[in-house]
Amino acid sequence: MSEAKGTDATPMHGKDRKQRQNDDFRAVDPAEVPLTTDQGTAVDHTDDALTAGERGPTLMEDFHFREKLTHFDHERIPERVVHARGAGAYGYFYPYESCASFTRAAFLQDPSVHTPVFVRFSTVQGPRGSADTVRDVRGFATKFYTSEGNFDLVGNNFPVFFIQDGIKFPDFVHALKPEPHNEIPTGASAHDTLWDFVSLQPETLHAVMWLMSDRAIPRSYRMMPGFGVHTFRLVDADGRGTFVKFHWTPRLGTHSLVWDEAQECQGRDPDFNRRDLWEAIEAGEYPEYELGVQLVPETDEFAFDFDLLDATKLIPEERVPVRPVGRMVLDRNPDNFFAETEQVAFHTANIVPGIDFTDDPLLQARLFSYLDTQLLRLGGSNFAQLPVNRPLAPVSTDQRDGFHQTAIHRGTSYTKNSLGGGCPAVGGPEGAAFAHHATRVDGAKVRARSASFRDHHSQAALFWHSASAWEKQHIVDAFRFELGKVGAVSVRERVVGELNGVDHALASAVATGVGVPAPPADEAATHKQVSPALSLENAPGDGSIRTRKVAVLVDDGVDAEQVVSVRDVLAAQGAVVEALAPRDGTIAGRDGEPQAVDRSLMTVASVLYDAVYVPGGPGPDAPSAQPNGAVLRFVRDAYRHGKPVAASGSGVAALEALEAPGLRLAEGPGEAVADHGVVSERTEGPVSGDFTRAFSEALAAHR
Ligand code: HDD
């Protein structure tokens, strides 16, 4: 990634321009102002309602009681109809250099200008209280508070969508959401209605391939990409348009969980991704993403074998490279989940001069839907006045009144007027106003899908053929899991039939797993193209181990020197190393010295860590020398999930207990052995540099 060229001081916790604006809306410090009513009257007592006699009836007169309960009764607002579960953070964005050659957007001109942002990550299917690590698309929505107004880039972590025309969105979401009669399943796509829809609507196939891949179970919001999905348009100062696809690339690389682990995480820590984001920002490990653009001249609109207006298609990066244009850093957690993360209102039509739409029918539907949904969700038309939604650019409209109006407008509210001095004037300062890009349109009014939208298989096949062997296996396993939960055999068969149009081997492997006949090879399914950029193997990020969580399993008698020698090396590289013991507090090291414990083993599990290390302990004959059940389970789970596992000294017994055929472990003292991410050494005292290096490399390789 290119380095920052910005000259602004990095806005640390608190005081960038958006935060200064938010300061005007923060509630008083309760440490300074004692409890009051909503009217500011101090309250003497809030534990007992006012009654006639100690055991008598409650009195209507108790205004504090009534206000307290009434407000409580009204605390909930409708959750988002999709993307209800999410987590947000503030940060800033700056361009690496001026993008004037293709857009006039002010926030993309000057590297010294840091534009504040708010980002909300989300899952799609589940309600607000659902688990994070479900198989689902992740939302990646960014609000840029630019000097020319708010620009919302409302994207996902997949570059393609399930449908081509927004009129199908209610159908798709009804099929995806829990079934209407029993509201099952929560946060999952493995059910009949979704797959019934998929089997009858083959335009879903490409996005479904992404959904069945490990892309749908990200390790962290900090380790997943974002895509604007649609082809948008950039417009330069001379009014020249260029088609664009937006990409966010995470600095830490794109990494995923494995399915078994993701499922266990749902119980062990349903807030897994949300917590990870929060803790990283609190620890000063600010998530970073590079904004990239794929630019296509307007003259090349028809140069592709798919339609640029079809949101089920991506532009292969090998065909049009992603050009890095800027960086986003998330450096501040919100103060209040409801006020900020819940009330943030994204809208694809929040756009600024220099960026424009295309006729993508999915995008056009979104331009209506987001405003409409906020009106219901946030209770009226004044939601743009909520602090998190407020632009930094001055707002001057003729819109008036309505629920929750907080502005005190003065003067007239119609254009044209003479009584208000003709204000506000239209057009803004010279050339600053948004002007819709003038595109020529002609045609008859029809309800029809363009013939150029008809190919549903070639890019699904492109994704499949670009996957590595293990990615392919995970995709097959995911299809088997999902279809295995579908009751209707006819639906299973139809999905397999559609997959046959993608690749016969894929369809056969899925068919075998779900007990339906494999169809004969489809002669028309000849797609064999590959785009290496689509494989997770080619998204390693900066190769660092920053923020990777390493569990060190300790107990009384542990060789503390070994723990220190490993922890120091990994922590110096930015890893988060935690000592886990059968009990909290301290344990006694081998030399009798107390050793601090970070967490009790009872409160955590292997799935919450990226790697595990078992240091040596007491001599081999001591009763506590054999790893106990909890340690063995921890190590076995990590190994099963393909995570780096290391052990030294007598801790190697935990690796021997894996009884993994062919796994090479250190045999004698003085030799560090690394085999498939399993690192061992039979030393006493500090471990060798080879040992820590091998462990760190295995961690950097993710799995
Ligand atoms: Fe959407 C929310 C992303 C298609 C209608 N969408 C929503 C959010 C994201 C996306 C990230 C959550 C925003 C937040 O955090 O508040 N949606 C997408 C992407 C799409 C897409 C990348 C395809 C390229 N969406 C789409 C269509 C429609 C909608 C076709 C309707 C025609 N989306 C909505 C919505 C939501 C929403 C109903 C629910 C809550 C909200 O808007 O604020 O209006």
UniProtKB/TrEMBL annotation:
Cofactor(s) it depends on: heme
Database matches in InterPro entries: Catalase (IPR018028), Catalase_AS (IPR024708), Catalase_clade2 (IPR024712), Catalase_clade2_helical (IPR043156), Catalase_core (IPR011614), Catalase_haem_BS (IPR002226), Catalase_immune_responsive (IPR010582), Catalase_large_C (IPR041399)
This enzyme's EC code(s): 1.11.1.6
Reaction catalysis annotation: 2 H2O2 = O2 + 2 H2O
Pfam families for the chain: Catalase, Catalase-rel, Catalase_C
Membrane-spanning residues: none
Region of interest called Disordered, as start-end residue ranges on this chain: 1-41
Keywords: Heme, Hydrogen peroxide, Iron, Metal-binding, Oxidoreductase, Peroxidase
Skewed-composition ranges (Basic and acidic residues): 19-29
SMART domains with a match to the protein in the record: Catalase (SM01060)
Record carries keyword Amino-acid biosynthesis: no
Domain Catalase core positions: 36-423
CDD domains noted in UniProt: GATase1_catalase (cd03132)
Functional summary from the UniProt entry: Decomposes hydrogen peroxide into water and oxygen; serves to protect cells from the toxic effects of hydrogen peroxide.
Recorded family membership: Belongs to the catalase family. HPII subfamily.
Protein name (database record): Catalase
Organism: Streptomyces albiaxialis
